[in-house]
Amino acid sequence: MLGESFYKKADEIIEMHMREERSLIPIIQDIQEEYRYLPPELLTYVAKEIGITEAKAYSVASFYENFSFEEKGKYIIKICDGTACHVRKSMPILDYLYKTLKLNAKKHTTEDALFTVETVSCLGACGLAPAITVNEKVYPKMSPEKMKKLLEEIKRGEPDAG
Description:
This protein is of the alpha+beta class. It has two domains: 4-63, Arc Repressor Mutant, subunit A, CATH 1.10.10; 75-156, Glutaredoxin, CATH 3.40.30.10. Helices cover 46% and strands 11% of the residues. The protein has seven helices and four strands. Helix 2 (24-35) runs antiparallel to helix 3 (40-50). The longest helix is centred in the last third of the chain and has 13 residues, at 144-156. The model has no long low-confidence stretch (mean pLDDT 93). This is NADP-reducing hydrogenase subunit HndA. Pfam families: 2Fe-2S_thioredx. Its cofactor is [2Fe-2S] cluster. GO terms for molecular function: 2 iron, 2 sulfur cluster binding; hydrogen dehydrogenase (NADP+) activity; metal ion binding. Its EC number is 1.12.1.3.
């Protein structure tokens, strides 16, 4: 169950937009940006506040791949599995992350909520394959060895790491 502060923040975000159906996407984008995921309770709340059904809000939020109902880590690592990246061995990077961070295809976020690992169909960086992003910053020509170094930099809090 969410605390009162979540609903207060949702109210602030709703007030920045019009209370109508066409504001749903911008509102839930802002909520997701705030929390790195879309808490289902807030989606229900937003639907009520802007006068649409809960079912309508869920159908919109679940249609778009960029909305997530699961909490995410501070650092969201996206591994590209598009053709160029796959052929250039992006999956060993994913395997390394799964092993190192104790994650798998069903468990995407570390226990300490520091990392979330996701695969994506394309990052639009085919010439840089295999590519990953960490919080939307692109890292080109990655390998498990480079990934190990990057994880170490992030954990040390180095400014350029994430």
